[in-house]
Design brief:
The chain is α/β, with parallel strands linked by helices and 310 residues long. The protein folds into 2 domains: 109 residues, Rossmann fold; 178 residues, Rossmann fold, CATH 3.40.50. It has 9 helices and 12 strands. The strands form 2 sheets. The chain has a 7-stranded parallel beta sheet. β6, α4 and β7 form a beta-alpha-beta unit. The mean pLDDT is 97. Bound molecules: NADP nicotinamide-adenine-dinucleotide phosphate (NAP). The site of NADP nicotinamide-adenine-dinucleotide phosphate has 30 residues, from α4 and β7.
Protein backbone atom coordinates (compact mmCIF):
# COMPACT_ATOMS: atom_id res chain seq x y z
CA UNK A 1 0.00 0.00 0.00
CA UNK A 2 1.38 3.41 -0.91
CA UNK A 3 0.26 6.48 0.96
CA UNK A 4 -0.20 9.72 -0.96
CA UNK A 5 -0.70 13.12 0.64
CA UNK A 6 -2.50 15.86 -1.27
CA UNK A 7 -0.66 18.93 0.07
CA UNK A 8 -2.15 21.69 -2.09
CA UNK A 9 -4.57 24.45 -1.13
CA UNK A 10 -7.36 22.68 0.86
CA UNK A 11 -10.04 24.28 -1.34
CA UNK A 12 -8.62 22.52 -4.41
CA UNK A 13 -9.12 19.03 -2.91
CA UNK A 14 -12.74 19.06 -4.12
CA UNK A 15 -11.54 19.60 -7.72
CA UNK A 16 -8.70 17.08 -7.58
CA UNK A 17 -9.91 14.14 -5.53
CA UNK A 18 -12.02 12.44 -8.22
CA UNK A 19 -9.57 12.97 -11.14
CA UNK A 20 -6.68 11.80 -8.96
CA UNK A 21 -8.53 8.69 -7.78
CA UNK A 22 -9.56 7.89 -11.35
CA UNK A 23 -5.98 8.25 -12.63
CA UNK A 24 -4.48 6.33 -9.70
CA UNK A 25 -7.04 3.53 -10.06
CA UNK A 26 -5.91 3.14 -13.68
CA UNK A 27 -2.33 2.46 -12.51
CA UNK A 28 -3.51 -0.67 -10.69
CA UNK A 29 -1.55 0.34 -7.58
CA UNK A 30 -2.94 -0.11 -4.07
CA UNK A 31 -2.95 3.32 -2.44
CA UNK A 32 -4.45 5.71 0.07
CA UNK A 33 -4.97 9.35 -0.90
CA UNK A 34 -5.85 12.05 1.59
CA UNK A 35 -5.50 15.84 2.03
CA UNK A 36 -4.23 15.32 5.59
CA UNK A 37 -2.08 13.00 7.65
CA UNK A 38 -1.40 12.52 11.33
CA UNK A 39 1.72 10.52 10.49
CA UNK A 40 4.05 12.20 7.94
CA UNK A 41 6.50 9.30 8.31
CA UNK A 42 3.97 7.02 6.59
CA UNK A 43 3.70 9.09 3.39
CA UNK A 44 5.29 7.81 0.15
CA UNK A 45 4.45 10.66 -2.27
CA UNK A 46 3.52 14.30 -1.66
CA UNK A 47 1.35 16.04 -4.25
CA UNK A 48 2.43 19.58 -3.65
CA UNK A 49 1.53 23.20 -4.28
CA UNK A 50 3.46 26.10 -2.75
CA UNK A 51 0.25 27.66 -1.36
CA UNK A 52 -0.65 24.40 0.43
CA UNK A 53 -0.20 23.46 4.10
CA UNK A 54 3.24 21.77 3.95
CA UNK A 55 6.41 23.83 4.29
CA UNK A 56 8.61 21.52 6.37
CA UNK A 57 9.36 18.31 4.47
CA UNK A 58 11.74 16.90 7.09
CA UNK A 59 9.10 14.75 8.88
CA UNK A 60 8.29 12.92 5.61
CA UNK A 61 11.16 10.49 6.11
CA UNK A 62 9.76 7.74 3.87
CA UNK A 63 8.66 9.97 0.98
CA UNK A 64 10.13 9.16 -2.43
CA UNK A 65 9.20 12.32 -4.34
CA UNK A 66 7.47 15.68 -4.15
CA UNK A 67 5.15 15.96 -7.15
CA UNK A 68 4.47 19.62 -7.89
CA UNK A 69 1.11 20.76 -9.28
CA UNK A 70 2.59 24.04 -10.57
CA UNK A 71 4.89 24.63 -13.54
CA UNK A 72 6.83 27.30 -11.62
CA UNK A 73 8.92 25.96 -8.74
CA UNK A 74 10.74 29.03 -7.41
CA UNK A 75 8.87 28.82 -4.09
CA UNK A 76 10.22 25.35 -3.28
CA UNK A 77 13.63 24.98 -4.96
CA UNK A 78 15.43 26.67 -2.06
CA UNK A 79 13.52 24.75 0.66
CA UNK A 80 16.36 23.27 2.75
CA UNK A 81 14.10 20.46 4.02
CA UNK A 82 13.62 19.11 0.48
CA UNK A 83 16.02 16.17 0.09
CA UNK A 84 14.10 14.01 -2.41
CA UNK A 85 13.36 14.49 -6.13
CA UNK A 86 10.98 17.30 -7.03
CA UNK A 87 8.90 17.16 -10.19
CA UNK A 88 6.99 20.07 -11.72
CA UNK A 89 3.80 20.16 -13.71
CA UNK A 90 4.03 19.69 -17.45
CA UNK A 91 0.55 19.06 -18.71
CA UNK A 92 -1.12 19.56 -22.07
CA UNK A 93 -4.01 21.44 -20.43
CA UNK A 94 -1.58 23.96 -18.95
CA UNK A 95 0.22 24.32 -22.29
CA UNK A 96 -2.97 24.73 -24.32
CA UNK A 97 -4.26 27.36 -21.90
CA UNK A 98 -1.01 29.33 -22.14
CA UNK A 99 -0.94 29.16 -25.95
CA UNK A 100 -4.49 30.51 -26.10
CA UNK A 101 -3.80 33.34 -23.63
CA UNK A 102 -0.53 34.36 -25.29
CA UNK A 103 -1.82 34.28 -28.87
CA UNK A 104 -4.96 36.18 -27.83
CA UNK A 105 -3.02 39.00 -26.17
CA UNK A 106 -0.41 39.06 -28.96
CA UNK A 107 -3.15 39.45 -31.58
CA UNK A 108 -4.78 42.19 -29.51
CA UNK A 109 -1.62 44.30 -29.67
CA UNK A 110 -0.68 43.28 -33.20
CA UNK A 111 -4.09 44.19 -34.61
CA UNK A 112 -4.45 47.33 -32.48
CA UNK A 113 -7.83 46.08 -31.27
CA UNK A 114 -8.00 48.63 -28.45
CA UNK A 115 -8.37 51.44 -30.98
CA UNK A 116 -11.80 50.17 -31.86
CA UNK A 117 -12.90 48.46 -28.65
CA UNK A 118 -12.02 51.46 -26.47
CA UNK A 119 -12.13 54.25 -29.04
CA UNK A 120 -15.61 54.03 -30.60
CA UNK A 121 -16.41 57.75 -30.74
CA UNK A 122 -18.14 58.35 -34.08
CA UNK A 123 -14.90 59.14 -35.95
CA UNK A 124 -14.06 56.97 -38.99
CA UNK A 125 -10.33 56.48 -38.37
CA UNK A 126 -8.71 53.97 -40.63
CA UNK A 127 -5.89 51.93 -39.20
CA UNK A 128 -4.65 48.94 -41.15
CA UNK A 129 -2.34 46.71 -39.10
CA UNK A 130 0.67 45.09 -40.75
CA UNK A 131 0.46 41.43 -41.64
CA UNK A 132 1.81 39.07 -39.00
CA UNK A 133 4.68 38.18 -41.33
CA UNK A 134 5.86 41.79 -40.98
CA UNK A 135 5.70 41.77 -37.15
CA UNK A 136 8.55 40.42 -35.01
CA UNK A 137 7.49 38.68 -31.83
CA UNK A 138 10.06 37.35 -29.37
CA UNK A 139 9.52 34.70 -26.73
CA UNK A 140 12.00 34.60 -23.83
CA UNK A 141 12.04 31.01 -22.54
CA UNK A 142 11.55 28.20 -25.04
CA UNK A 143 10.51 25.45 -22.65
CA UNK A 144 7.22 23.56 -22.48
CA UNK A 145 5.15 26.74 -22.55
CA UNK A 146 7.37 29.21 -24.42
CA UNK A 147 8.21 26.63 -27.09
CA UNK A 148 4.53 25.87 -27.72
CA UNK A 149 3.64 29.58 -27.82
CA UNK A 150 6.49 30.32 -30.25
CA UNK A 151 5.28 27.54 -32.56
CA UNK A 152 1.67 28.73 -32.41
CA UNK A 153 2.74 32.30 -33.25
CA UNK A 154 4.92 31.01 -36.10
CA UNK A 155 1.89 29.10 -37.42
CA UNK A 156 0.05 32.45 -37.52
CA UNK A 157 2.90 33.76 -39.73
CA UNK A 158 4.57 36.06 -37.18
CA UNK A 159 8.31 36.50 -37.52
CA UNK A 160 9.12 34.64 -34.30
CA UNK A 161 12.38 34.89 -32.36
CA UNK A 162 13.10 32.92 -29.23
CA UNK A 163 15.68 32.86 -26.46
CA UNK A 164 16.74 30.09 -24.11
CA UNK A 165 19.69 29.22 -21.85
CA UNK A 166 20.95 26.39 -24.02
CA UNK A 167 21.02 26.22 -27.80
CA UNK A 168 17.68 25.20 -29.31
CA UNK A 169 16.22 24.54 -32.71
CA UNK A 170 12.48 25.00 -33.28
CA UNK A 171 10.96 24.94 -36.76
CA UNK A 172 9.79 28.38 -37.84
CA UNK A 173 11.51 30.14 -34.92
CA UNK A 174 14.84 32.01 -35.05
CA UNK A 175 16.49 30.76 -31.88
CA UNK A 176 19.08 32.62 -29.81
CA UNK A 177 20.62 31.56 -26.55
CA UNK A 178 22.93 32.66 -23.76
CA UNK A 179 23.83 36.19 -22.70
CA UNK A 180 25.04 37.24 -26.13
CA UNK A 181 21.75 36.12 -27.73
CA UNK A 182 19.56 38.19 -25.41
CA UNK A 183 20.36 41.63 -26.87
CA UNK A 184 19.88 40.27 -30.39
CA UNK A 185 16.46 38.90 -29.41
CA UNK A 186 15.02 41.84 -27.52
CA UNK A 187 16.38 44.49 -29.89
CA UNK A 188 14.08 43.03 -32.58
CA UNK A 189 11.07 42.39 -30.35
CA UNK A 190 8.07 44.50 -31.34
CA UNK A 191 6.08 42.23 -29.04
CA UNK A 192 8.00 40.55 -26.21
CA UNK A 193 6.59 37.56 -24.33
CA UNK A 194 8.19 36.46 -21.05
CA UNK A 195 7.94 32.74 -20.34
CA UNK A 196 11.07 32.26 -18.25
CA UNK A 197 11.13 30.64 -14.83
CA UNK A 198 12.11 32.86 -11.91
CA UNK A 199 15.69 32.03 -10.90
CA UNK A 200 18.64 34.01 -9.57
CA UNK A 201 19.70 34.49 -13.22
CA UNK A 202 16.35 35.71 -14.54
CA UNK A 203 15.27 38.03 -11.71
CA UNK A 204 15.04 41.63 -13.00
CA UNK A 205 16.14 40.43 -16.44
CA UNK A 206 14.02 43.12 -18.04
CA UNK A 207 15.72 46.12 -16.43
CA UNK A 208 16.16 49.73 -17.56
CA UNK A 209 19.10 48.85 -19.82
CA UNK A 210 17.30 46.00 -21.58
CA UNK A 211 14.03 47.90 -21.90
CA UNK A 212 16.05 50.62 -23.67
CA UNK A 213 17.32 47.99 -26.14
CA UNK A 214 13.76 47.17 -27.27
CA UNK A 215 12.33 48.89 -30.36
CA UNK A 216 10.44 52.12 -29.60
CA UNK A 217 6.73 51.46 -29.17
CA UNK A 218 7.13 47.76 -28.34
CA UNK A 219 4.60 45.74 -26.34
CA UNK A 220 5.38 43.46 -23.41
CA UNK A 221 3.33 40.44 -22.37
CA UNK A 222 4.36 38.76 -19.10
CA UNK A 223 2.73 35.48 -18.10
CA UNK A 224 6.07 34.21 -16.65
CA UNK A 225 6.76 35.64 -13.19
CA UNK A 226 6.50 39.19 -11.83
CA UNK A 227 10.13 39.62 -10.67
CA UNK A 228 11.43 39.00 -14.22
CA UNK A 229 10.69 42.71 -14.71
CA UNK A 230 12.08 45.71 -12.83
CA UNK A 231 8.72 47.39 -12.15
CA UNK A 232 10.04 50.94 -11.71
CA UNK A 233 12.00 50.70 -14.96
CA UNK A 234 8.92 49.42 -16.80
CA UNK A 235 6.70 52.19 -15.42
CA UNK A 236 9.28 54.77 -16.59
CA UNK A 237 9.47 53.19 -20.06
CA UNK A 238 5.66 53.21 -20.28
CA UNK A 239 5.50 56.87 -19.17
CA UNK A 240 7.94 57.95 -21.89
CA UNK A 241 6.10 55.84 -24.49
CA UNK A 242 9.22 53.81 -25.25
CA UNK A 243 7.06 50.80 -24.36
CA UNK A 244 3.50 51.18 -25.70
CA UNK A 245 1.74 48.76 -23.42
CA UNK A 246 2.40 45.98 -20.92
CA UNK A 247 -0.02 43.12 -20.37
CA UNK A 248 0.91 41.60 -17.03
CA UNK A 249 -0.48 38.40 -15.51
CA UNK A 250 2.08 37.92 -12.71
CA UNK A 251 3.47 40.24 -10.04
CA UNK A 252 6.02 40.48 -7.24
CA UNK A 253 3.16 40.51 -4.74
CA UNK A 254 -0.03 38.62 -5.56
CA UNK A 255 -2.80 39.61 -5.39
CA UNK A 256 -1.41 42.87 -6.81
CA UNK A 257 -1.95 45.47 -4.01
CA UNK A 258 -4.90 47.77 -4.70
CA UNK A 259 -2.64 50.85 -4.54
CA UNK A 260 -0.11 49.56 -7.11
CA UNK A 261 0.50 51.92 -10.04
CA UNK A 262 -0.15 49.11 -12.53
CA UNK A 263 -3.87 49.06 -11.72
CA UNK A 264 -4.46 52.60 -12.95
CA UNK A 265 -1.73 53.06 -15.55
CA UNK A 266 -3.39 53.69 -18.95
CA UNK A 267 -0.79 51.54 -20.72
CA UNK A 268 -1.02 48.49 -18.48
CA UNK A 269 -3.44 45.60 -18.56
CA UNK A 270 -3.54 43.55 -15.36
CA UNK A 271 -4.83 40.00 -15.40
CA UNK A 272 -4.96 38.12 -12.07
CA UNK A 273 -2.51 35.23 -12.69
CA UNK A 274 -4.96 33.42 -14.90
CA UNK A 275 -2.86 32.98 -18.06
CA UNK A 276 -2.98 29.24 -17.54
CA UNK A 277 -4.21 27.06 -14.70
CA UNK A 278 -3.23 23.48 -13.94
CA UNK A 279 -6.24 21.41 -15.08
CA UNK A 280 -7.26 18.68 -12.61
CA UNK A 281 -8.17 16.00 -15.18
CA UNK A 282 -5.00 16.15 -17.26
CA UNK A 283 -2.60 16.95 -14.41
CA UNK A 284 -3.94 14.05 -12.32
CA UNK A 285 -2.77 11.75 -15.13
CA UNK A 286 0.72 13.29 -14.99
CA UNK A 287 0.90 12.80 -11.21
CA UNK A 288 -0.36 9.22 -11.39
CA UNK A 289 2.10 8.36 -14.15
CA UNK A 290 4.98 9.60 -12.01
CA UNK A 291 3.80 7.53 -9.04
CA UNK A 292 3.55 4.50 -11.32
CA UNK A 293 7.09 5.18 -12.54
CA UNK A 294 8.37 5.65 -9.01
CA UNK A 295 6.90 2.33 -7.93
CA UNK A 296 8.21 0.55 -11.05
CA UNK A 297 11.72 1.92 -10.48
CA UNK A 298 11.54 3.96 -13.71
CA UNK A 299 12.90 7.53 -13.99
CA UNK A 300 10.40 10.22 -12.99
CA UNK A 301 9.27 12.73 -15.59
CA UNK A 302 9.76 16.51 -15.36
CA UNK A 303 12.30 16.40 -12.55
CA UNK A 304 13.45 19.87 -11.49
CA UNK A 305 17.16 20.66 -11.80
CA UNK A 306 17.58 22.38 -8.46
CA UNK A 307 20.99 23.76 -9.39
CA UNK A 308 19.54 25.53 -12.41
CA UNK A 309 16.47 26.48 -10.32
CA UNK A 310 13.81 25.21 -12.76
P1 LIG B 1 10.43 25.19 -18.71
O1 LIG B 1 9.91 24.10 -19.58
O2 LIG B 1 11.32 24.86 -17.57
O3 LIG B 1 11.17 26.23 -19.67
C1 LIG B 1 11.94 27.29 -19.20
C2 LIG B 1 12.64 27.96 -20.37
O4 LIG B 1 13.34 29.10 -19.87
C3 LIG B 1 13.66 27.05 -21.05
O5 LIG B 1 13.68 27.27 -22.44
C4 LIG B 1 14.97 27.52 -20.42
O6 LIG B 1 16.11 27.34 -21.23
C5 LIG B 1 14.70 29.01 -20.28
N1 LIG B 1 15.60 29.60 -19.29
C6 LIG B 1 15.70 29.32 -17.96
N2 LIG B 1 16.69 30.05 -17.40
C7 LIG B 1 17.21 30.80 -18.39
C8 LIG B 1 18.27 31.74 -18.45
N3 LIG B 1 18.99 32.07 -17.37
N4 LIG B 1 18.55 32.29 -19.64
C9 LIG B 1 17.86 31.97 -20.75
N5 LIG B 1 16.84 31.07 -20.77
C10 LIG B 1 16.52 30.50 -19.60
O7 LIG B 1 9.22 26.06 -18.09
P2 LIG B 1 7.72 26.18 -18.64
O8 LIG B 1 6.93 25.00 -18.28
O9 LIG B 1 7.77 26.59 -20.06
O10 LIG B 1 7.21 27.39 -17.72
C11 LIG B 1 7.82 28.67 -17.77
C12 LIG B 1 7.29 29.54 -16.65
O11 LIG B 1 5.95 29.95 -16.91
C13 LIG B 1 7.18 28.84 -15.29
O12 LIG B 1 8.43 28.77 -14.64
C14 LIG B 1 6.21 29.74 -14.56
O13 LIG B 1 6.93 30.76 -13.91
C15 LIG B 1 5.37 30.36 -15.68
N6 LIG B 1 3.95 29.94 -15.65
C16 LIG B 1 3.00 30.89 -15.50
C17 LIG B 1 1.66 30.53 -15.50
C18 LIG B 1 0.58 31.56 -15.42
O14 LIG B 1 -0.60 31.22 -15.30
N7 LIG B 1 0.90 32.84 -15.49
C19 LIG B 1 1.30 29.18 -15.64
C20 LIG B 1 2.30 28.24 -15.77
C21 LIG B 1 3.64 28.62 -15.77
P3 LIG B 1 16.60 25.85 -21.66
O15 LIG B 1 15.61 25.40 -22.71
O16 LIG B 1 17.94 26.08 -22.20
O17 LIG B 1 16.53 25.02 -20.40
Amino acid sequence: MINILFAAKPASWADYKTPLRRALDDTGLAYTLSPETSDPASIDYIIYAPNGPVTDLAPFIRAKAVLGLWAGVERITDNKTLKIPLTRMVDHGLTEGMVEWVTGHTLRHHLGMDRHILGQDGEWRKYVPPLARDRSVAVLGLGELGGACAQALAALNFNVLGWSRRKKSIKGVTCYHGNEGLAQTISQAEILILLLPLTSETENLLNEHRLAQMPKGAFIINPGRGPLIDDDALLKALDTGHISHATLDVFRIEPLPKTHAYWTHPSVTVTPHIASETRPDSSARVIAENIRRGEAGEPLQHVVDRNAGY
